[in-house]
Amino acid sequence: MSYTGLSHEQRAIMLKAAGAADIDNLFSDIPKEIQTDCISGLPEPLSEIEIEKEMNLIGLNNTEYRTIFTGGGAYNHYIPAVVDEISARSEFYTSYTPYQPEVSQGTLAAIFEFQTMISSLTGLDITNASMYDGATSLAEAVMMGIRTNGRRKVLVSRGVHPNYRQVLKTYAWAGDFDIVEIPLEKGLTDFEKTRGLIDDHTSSIIIQSPNFLGNIEDTKSFSKITGNSETILITAVVEAMSLGLLKGPGELGASIVCGEIQSFGNPLNFGGPYAGYISAKKDFLRKMPGRLAGQTLDSSGNRAFALTLQTREQHIRREKATSNICTNQGLIALRTAVYLSLIGVKLSSLAQLNHNTASYLKNKLTATGIKSVHDNTPFFNEFVIKPRDINRYIFEFRKRGINPGIEIGRWYDDYNGCLLVCATEMISQSDVDEYCDILKEASL
Amino acid sequence: MNVELIFEKSDSGQNNYKLPEWKGPSSSIIPPGYIRTGINLPDCSEPAVVRHYNNLSKMNFGVDNGMYPLGSCTMKYNPKINERISGKKIYSSIHPFAGEESSQGVLRILFEFSEYLCRITGLGGFTLSPAAGSHGELTGVMVIKKYFESIGEKRSTILIPDSAHGTNPASVAMCGFNVKEVPSNSDGDVDFNKFMEMLDKDVAGMMLTCPNTLGLFDRNIIKIAEALHKNGSLFYGDGANLNALVGRVRFRDVGFDLMHINLHKTFSTPHGGGGPGSGPLGAADHLVKFLPVTIVIKDGERFGIDSDRPDSIGRVHSFYGNFSICLRAYIYIRMLGCDGLKDISDTAVLNANYLMSQLKNIFNLPINRKCMHEFILNDKGLPNGITTNDISKRILDYGFHSPTVYFPLLIHGAIMIEPTETESYESLQRFIDVMKTIRKECDAEPEKILGAPHNTPVKRVDTVLAAKKPVLKWGD
Fold first, then answer.
1. Is the backbone peptide bond immediately before B96 cis, with ω within 30 degrees of 0?
2. Which domain holds residue A42?
3. A272 and A354 assigned to the same domain
C-alpha cells in the first residue's frame, strides 16, 4: 500500500524540471557512506483487506471485559455517539494547530468553549487549551508555581496518583526542585503534618481530590493553611466526572487546579491519548504554559478567535518560554467540549448516578462482609476494600469477564492486599448485584 | 458574521438527554459543604449540539479539504483505515491497568512498533511514552543529564543551531542546561568553524534537526558527530523531519546518540487540530538503560512491562504514552513495508524540489541548492509594502492552507513550503499557478493582497487585539 500518487511520466517531468538526473541525485548532499538502500527486517507490506484482518486477530489477544470496576486515573464512562461523530469530521482531525485563524475558527471556537467550560467546573478564572495528560499537567502546574513565587520546595500528598507523583519526581530531578511527600492519615492527606512541613521555602502544596483512594479531601481547610502566604495550593482532579457533583476546587480556595479530562468523552485506549489542563486564578496568566485561545475581532469587526499571548511560548521566547510545550491535545479538548455541550446541565445528574451506584456497591459489599477500608470517609465513585485473598478475588472475577478493580499494594505498603473499586454509570444495579453474588458463589 | 458559541444557543430546559434512572437505594456521606450548588454548562438539545459543531467544522481547513503546505509540520494524508481500526473496541476499551494478561495484543503492538522504529533508525531502543515531539525532546535532554550524572561529570551547556525548532532551547532550559546558539553559514549548514570554537569540555551535547529547518541536509554532519564524540559530548537528533530520510539514511549511522520522532510527520497519524501527537524517543545502545520506565519487553511468547529499570530517568507520562496514536503508526508501517516507507521520502523530496524549481523565479529563494522535503522563499523584493503575512493570507483565498511563515527565524520573512508526498501532480500545478497569480497581483492589484483574505469564513483576524486585551472565556 502507498498513499503517493505520481505516475512514472509525472516523476520524469518533475525530475527534469528539478535538474536531477534521477531520484538519487536529489539526495546527493548526504554523504555516500551513510546512505542506505533499504530498511531491513520490516514485515512484508499488507493490503487494506489484510491489515484489517491482521489487526482483528492481534486484538483477540486483548481481553474485553464485559463489566469494568477499574478506575485509578482512567475511567470507563459512556461515550455518546455524537462525540465520535463530530471528532471524526476530517475538518477537525486533519487540521493542524490553528496558526491561520481565518481558516481555523472551528478548532479555535471549540478550544475557547473548552476553556470556558473547564474554568466553570474548576471554579477558576482561566484555563489553557489542554496539555498532554493529567500527570504532566500536574508537573507543569508545579513549575508554574515555582516560576511565580521563586521557591523550590514542593509538598505533595501521598493521596496523589502514584504515577503522577513519579512524573513529578522526574521533572523535579530535571528542573532541580525538591519534593517532600505528605503522609496519609485514615485515607486522607494528613492535615497536621502538612501544617508542620510548610515553611518559607514552600512553593506549593499539592493534593488530589477525590484522591487516589477515592476519598474527597477537604480542600477548604488546606486553602486556609496557605491563606495569604505565598505558598500556592494546587488541587489535582483526576476523575473529572466528580466535578459534576462536587464544588470546583477553585471555589474552595485552590489557586491552581490541574487534572485529567479523559472521563469527558474519551476512550480508555490503554492510557492514551488523554488530556490534561491547568486552570488558575488570573494572576497566573503570563506564567501559564501551553496554548491559549482568545477572543478578538476580524477586519470586518466581527467576533473571531485566535491563539494568543504567544510571547509566553517556545517558538517566540525559546529558552525563556514558560514551557517547551508546542501543541495541546486539540482533538481531545474538542471531544470534551462536545461532550460537555451534549451532557451539559445533566452533568450533575450523571455524576450523582456515579455516586449512587458506587455507594450502593459499597453498602452491599459491607453487607456481604467486605468492608470498605475507610468506611466513614466521603468518596465519589471509588473506594478501597480489603478482600480476604486478593489474588483469588481478582482471578475469580476475571474468569467471569469482570475486571473487579486495581490491586494497590504495589504503591502503598500499608494497603497490601487492598483493591481500589470504581463504579461509573456503565455499572447498572444488576451489575452490582452480580458482583456481590460472585462473592458468595466463589466464597470470596 | 460572528463565530457563534454553544453558550449562545443555550436556554433553560432544552437539554433532553436521557440518563439511566437510578432505582436503587441512595445514601451519601458527602458533607453538604462539598456539594456543587449549580452547574454552568450549556442547556441544548442533541440536534442543536450536532448542528453547532458541524457548522464550526466548516470553518476549519484540513488536509482532506486541500493542499496544506505548512512547512515543518508535514500535513500529509491520514489513512482512513487507521481511524477504523483504532476505533475498534478491542483496542479502544482496554484499561491501562487491565493487567499484562489482559492486554497481550496491545503490548505486542507496542513491542513490535518499537522494534520497527529501531530498524528504521538503527538506534538500540525506543520509549513510546512521550506524548508529543516536544515531550520526546524533553525526555531526551533528561537522558543527557542522567548520562553525565552516571559518569560523574558536570557539564552544563547544550549547543543548538540558530535554525532549530523553538522547542529545543525550551526543553534544554527545563532541564537546567544553558543554551549556546551556533550560527549557520550562508549555505544553511552549521558554521563548522564557529561550532568548533564553541565546543569545549562544558558541552554536554548538541541538538541538531536533521534535515534542518531550512529543509537542508547539513553537509558537515559527520564531522560534527565526530567532533562531539571526541569531546565526550552526546549528539541529539531532532528527528521531526524523518519523513525526508526514511529508507535513505539510518540516523544511528549519522552519529546520533538520541533522537525523537514525531509520528504524525512520518507515520501519518492525524494532527487533530493540535494533537494528540506522539514523540517516541530512540537511544543508542549505551543510553537505552536511561530511557523512561514502562518499556515493553518480550519473554518467550509473552509480552510484559519492564518496570525494573534502576538507571531510568523515571516516568514521564500518566500511563504508557499515546497508545492509540502508536497503533495508527504501527498499521501504517505494516501497510507500507520497506519500499513504501522509502517512497515517502523519495516522493516528498521530489515534490519539494519540483515545487522549488517552479517557484524560485516567482518569489525570492534565499538559499538556492537542492532541498530535502521542504524549502524556503521569502518576501524580499515584493512591491507595495507587501509582506509574508499578506501573501499567506492571500493563499487562503485560493483554497489552500498557507505555508509556515516567519520560521525559521534566521530567514527574514520566511515562507516555508512543504508539499509532502501525498500531493498529486495536479495539486502541485494548481499551487504553482496560484503563486504566479498572487505574484502578479502584488504588482497589479496590491490592495487585494493587503486586504486578504476575502473568501474565508472570517476576514483577517486581529491577533494584536487578542493579546492586548485577553478574553479567554465566554462572558469575560
1. no
2. 8-56
3. no
Distance, in Å, from the CA atom of B115 to the CA atom of B104, rounded to the nearest integer, reads 16
How many domains is chain A built from? Answer: 3
Q: Which residue has the higher pLDDT, A312 or A75?
A: A75
Name which CATH class applies to B81-336. alpha beta
Size of chain B, expressed as the number of residues it contains: 476
CB pairs under 8 A between A and B: 673
Chain B nearest-CA distance from A103, in A, is 5
Do A247 and A367 lie in one domain? The reply is: no
Spell out which residues of chain B touch residue A102, defining contact as CB-CB under 8 Å: 393, 396, 453, 456-461
Per-residue model confidence (pLDDT) at position A147 = 94
Residue A62 inside a domain? The answer is no
Are A244 and A351 part of one and the same domain?
Answer: no
- So what's the pLDDT on residue B63? 97
Q: What is the 3-state secondary structure (H, E, C) of B260-286?
A: ECCHHHHCCCCCCCCCCCCCCEEECHH
Residue A323 has pLDDT above 90, yes or no: no
Contacts of A352 in chain B (CB under 8 A): 22
Whether B309 and chain A come into contact, CB under 8 Å, resolves to: no
Does residue A17 belong to any structural domain of this protein?
yes
Residues 6+ apart with CB under 8 A from A251: A123
Rounded to the nearest angstrom, the minimum Cα separation between B270 and chain A is: 6
ipTM: 0.97
pLDDT value at residue B60: 97
Regions in chain B scoring below 70 on pLDDT: none
Give me the pLDDT at residue A271, please: 98
C-alpha A292/C-alpha A187 separation (Å) is 36
How far is A175 from B454, CA to CA, in rounded Å? 47
At residue A357, the pLDDT reads: 98
CATH topology of domain B345-465: Aspartate Aminotransferase, domain 1 (3.90.1150)
Q: What integer pLDDT is reported at residue B73 of this predicted model? A: 94
In which band, very low, low, confident or very high, does the pLDDT at A351 lie, cut at 50, 70 and 90? Answer: very high
Same domain, A180 and A293: yes
Please report, for the domain that includes residue A430, its CATH number: 3.90.1150.10
What burial class does residue A21 get, using C-beta atoms within 10 Å of its C-beta: 0-12 exposed, 13-18 middle, 19+ buried?
exposed
Q: By mean pLDDT, which of A209-218, A364-373, B88-97, B358-367 is the weakest?
A: A364-373
State phi, psi for B382 to the nearest 5 degrees: -75, 140
The pLDDT of residue A244 is 98
Q: Please spell the DSSP secondary structure of B201-266, one letter per residue.
A: TTEEEEEEESS-TTS---TTHHHHHHHHHHTT-EEEEEGGGGGGTTTTB-HHHHT-SEEE--HHHH
CB-nearest partner of B460 from A95, A102, A317: A102
If you search the block for the grid coordinates 444557543, which residue do you land on?
A: B9
* Residue A133 distance to chain B (closest CA, Å): 7
Residues A106 and A186 in one domain: yes
pLDDT band at A316 (very low <50, low <70, confident <90, very high): confident
A332 and A382 share a domain? no
How is chain B split into domains, by residue range?
81-336, 345-465
To the nearest whole Å, the CA of B83 is away from the closest chain A CA by 8
Res A443: pLDDT? 85
pLDDT in tens, A147-156: 999 999 999 9
Residues of A in contact with B340 (CB under 8 A): 1-2, 45
> Does A1 reside within a domain?
no
- Spell B188-215 as b/e; 16+ CB within 10 A means b: bbbbbeebeebbeebbbbbbbbbbbbbb
Q: Are residues A165 and A122 located together in one domain of the fold?
A: yes
Query: Which residue in A1, A35, A94 is closest to B248 by CB distance?
Result: A35
Chain A positions touching B154 (Cβ under 8 A) are none
> What is residue A311's predicted lDDT score, i.e. its pLDDT?
77
Q: State whether B273 and A294 contact (CB < 8 Å).
A: no
Q: Does B82 touch chain A (CB under 8 A)?
A: no
